[in-house]
Automatic annotation (TrEMBL):
Signal peptide: none
Gene giving rise to this polypeptide: hisC_4
Domain named Aminotransferase class I/classII large: residues: 28-343
Listed name of the protein: Histidinol-phosphate transaminase
Domain of life, source organism: Bacteria
Length: 358
């Protein structure tokens, strides 16, 4: 190769996505929606197809207006992106490039660390405390951006709104970015969300349509932040990064509240059943408020390989910064039965227990 990457790029650990299994029901590695997208999506996309010869709305104005109304903010406080990952990269470009400093948990959501490293920013990783963000320790780090993934990925644990408010008021970071990709799977999303803190100017909130709305394949998410933050990000974003089909799908998802509620009900119910199934095999999941569970296992590689041999793919914890564990997405009903059969072959069955809430 005649050109070399900038020196800091060589130190970046590439993102490793979860592997799919040979079937929809057996794919439990990537936290995808077990019920898919809204059944009304086809009609919405068919209508949008007639506009594909035109460029998409560069700022997703209609979607921003609906999101602003939903969250009680001004449309200029919303930026729609090509998945929330694009927005994380934009935050790094605008606020961390060439010597900025980010603080995050260890293990981190990988894109937080990768995006910061890609612009030659410094990253401080603060180990979790009992599987949760150690906000007290993070508050001792002076940083430009603090990333708080709530619920956390890969553990599924949460910090309360009161705890995040206190952290934001500590003045340790110039901007606290709260990633709420999994907020819909908490016990009370409205009480948990940090969107009310955006008014302070010190907090920004990330959301995605990939999880509860089942639009992972269309790549669309959004950021709620102060107008000044959104204005800065608009300067560095690609002009047409969110396509027409993705915008149409997101609008449809917001309208189909029944499907969203069905996904939430399924996830909370099957998550509990999943914990009980694992406990029957003496595997105790970390208490999760997301659409997955993290499970310590005695032989990570052997466990992952054993499940794969029986048609189930899960995410190795070592790929997520949590060696000695696996992350299992909440499956379909058929997927749960498939996992039960796989576990029967991989591990002996013991007496039924409830989740070990730690």
């Amino acid at each position: 190769m005649s050109i070399a990457p900038r020196p800091w790029v060589n130190d970046i650990q590439s993102y490793r996505p979860g592997a799919a299994s040979g079937s929809e029901d057996g794919s439990m590695a990537s936290n995808e929606s077990p019920l898919g997208a809204s059944p009304r999506l086809g009609a919405a996309l068919a209508d949008a197809v007639s506009r594909l010869h035109r460029y998409p709305d560069p700022l997703a104005g209609e979607l921003c207006s609906k999101l602003a109304s939903l969250h009680g903010v001004h449309p200029d406080q919303i930026l729609v992106g090509n998945g929330s990952d694009e927005l994380i990269f934009l935050l790094s470009t605008a606020f961390l490039a060439q010597g900025g400093h980010a603080v995050c948990a260890e293990p981190a959501y990988q894109i937080d660390a990768i995006s910061a490293a890609s612009v030659n920013a410094r990253v401080t990783r603060v180990p979790l405390a009992q599987w949760k963000h150690d906000l007290a320790a993070m508050a001792r780090v002076r940083a430009d951006i603090a990333y708080v993934v709530n619920p956390h990925n890969p553990t599924g644990t949460v910090r309360s709104l009161q705890e995040i408010r206190a952290f934001a008021e500590s003045d340790a970071a110039s901007l606290v970015v709260v990633d709420e990709a999994y907020i819909d799977f908490t016990e009370d999303p409205e009480a948990m969300t940090a969107i009310p803190l955006v008014a302070s100017g010190r907090v920004a909130v990330l959301r995605t349509f990939s999880k509860i709305h089942g639009l992972a394949g269309l790549r669309i998410g959004y950021l709620v932040a102060a107008k000044e933050v959104i204005a800065a990000l608009r300067k560095v974003r690609a002009p047409f990064s969110v396509g027409t089909l993705a915008q149409a799908a997101a609008l449809n998802a917001l309208e189909d509240t029944g499907h969203r509620d069905a996904v939430r009900e399924h996830t909370l119910r099957v998550r509990n059943e999943l914990c009980r199934l694992l406990a029957a095999h003496q595997l105790h999941a970390v208490e999760s408020h997301a659409n997955f569970v993290l499970v310590p296992v005695p032989d990570e590689a052997g466990f992952v390989a054993g499940l794969r041999a029986h048609g189930v793919s899960v995410r190795p914890g070592s790929a997520l910064g949590a060696p000695g564990t696996v992350r299992i997405s909440v499956p379909t009903e058929a997927g749960l039965a498939l996992l039960a059969e796989a576990l029967h072959h991989v591990l002996p069955v013991n007496h039924l227990e409830t989740c070990d809430h730690r």
